[in-house]
Amino acid sequence: MTTTPAPTTAKSPSPPPRSILLDPAFLRLWAGTTASGLATWALPFVLGLAVLHRDLGAAGLGLVLAARTVGFLAAVAVGGVLADRHARRAVVLWSALAAAAAAPLLAAGLGGSLALMTFAAALAGAGQGACRPAFQALTAETVEPGRRQQANAAMTLAVRGSTLAGPALTALLAAFLDVRTLLLGIGALWLVAALAPGKGGVVADTAEPRTEQADGSDAGSDAASGSSASDVPRAGFRSEFLEGIREARRHPWFLGGLAALVAVIALGYSATSVALPLISRDRYGSEWVLAAAMTAYTVGALGGALVIARWRPRSPGWAALAGLGAYGVAPLSLTLPVHPAVVVAAYAVAGIGIELFNVPWFTATQREVAPDKLARVSSLDFLVSYGLAPVGLALIAPAIGRFGVTPVLAVCAAACFLVPAAAALVPTARHFARPPGR
To answer: How far apart are CA 218 and CA 200, in angstroms?
Structure first.
């Protein structure tokens, strides 16, 4: 007796991956990160309104903003160690609560106690600084590796979008609310940043690299979520921070990319921040070039984030460094008496390029760095790049006064082009990844 074989059914194609924006865990993290970004951006703007209302002097504004920067730089390294030592969610909670507590202190000191405002600004900066590496590590815990680039792009879209719409919204609110109320609103944003993110740990430890400790044990096996087994004695803070530096040195692409990022921020970004207002006034006789160029930069960054959310170049590291080097067109456009539209277009290109670098850079760090050291390596990134930016700003103005604006801008443009190009020659830079098995 013969039997007819059962018909074979064709395999149905696998459904397309769900958008990262439909993931509840990521949406909570995205809401917290966006709120912290809004609060970080809004504080200098609101304090500027306080100067306009004569509640704060120009010298006082400089002191308060400097205190915030000092607080940020002091806390970012501490936050990186704490976020690798304890649950990342707890670090986000307490650091954001500290920044939220600073808002009513700023409001209380406004127009009365500059010392209180300075302390509160340092506290706000410390909360912001401790949050940054913890948020980076929490992203790696919440989003699986294949969707992290899309997740990082979604976060930068939110930040750039708030930068674009924020001034108009704040100006509108200022028509109905006083500066103290706006400061309390910043505190409310920090409360959202503290409470919105979930616990993390949704994604299992899938990172490729593992580091071997001195005793031969696997460092990553004890601390997939940033904390080691309770029976292992803890090293001191300094030792743990140095361990993060050693982890960063294991990745030549990271060191080369960080050097390129520092050159672009400390030279290119600082030079254009000082020179663009002067050139807008002296060469073009109007402030509209300044406003249009900065708006074009933000719009370009939004476009770059949209592109990199889906684009997967064959050599992601080289593509990212090329995007970073594209910032050089901004200072270059200011060296020649070109039509203002050329300056605006150059800033748009710079904005596109900076996000073509940022998103793959964050994604590669989350993928390549050992999970139990991710926050410390991220803190090193923020500490070096943000820490040297004020140095660049402090040196550019005297250099322009000594040598003239055009030579300084030309040197800074050359550095923006050449340093990322040199970083692209570093081993492992092509893919922002170590070779398999190493």
So the answer is: 22
Cα separations (Å) of 215 from 207, 212, 246? 21, 8, 16
Q: Is 339 helix (H, G, I), strand (E, B) or coil?
A: coil
Sequence-ordered list of residues with C-beta below 8 angstroms from that of 1, at least 6 positions apart, any chain: none
Q: Which long-range contacts (CB under 8 A, 24 or more apart) does 20-27 make?
A: 20/143, 20/147, 20/150, 20/151, 20/154, 21/154, 23/143, 25/142, 25/198, 25/202, 26/142, 26/143, 26/151, 26/154
Q: Give the separation between CA 186 and CA 35, rounded to whole angstroms.
A: 9
The model scores a pTM over 0.90:
no
Residue 218: phi and psi, rounded to 5, are -85, 115
Q: What DSSP string runs through 169-232?
A: HHHHHHTTS-HHHHHHHHHHHHHHHHHSS-----S----S---B-TTS-BGGGS-TTS---TTS
Q: How far from 219 is each of 213, 238, 353, CA to CA, in Å?
A: 6, 18, 36
**Helix, strand, or coil (residue 435):** coil
- Residue 233: pLDDT band by 50, 70, 90 thresholds? low
Helix, strand, coil percentages in the chain from 3-state DSSP, rounded to 5: 75, 0, 25
Q: Would you state the torsion angle of the CA atoms of residues 24, 28, 34, 37, taken in this order, to the nearest 10 degrees? A: -150
Chain segment 326-381, per-residue pLDDT in tens: 999 999 999 988 999 999 999 999 999 999 999 999 999 999 999 999 999 999 99
Whose structure tokens read 């001034």? 167
267 DSSP assignment: I
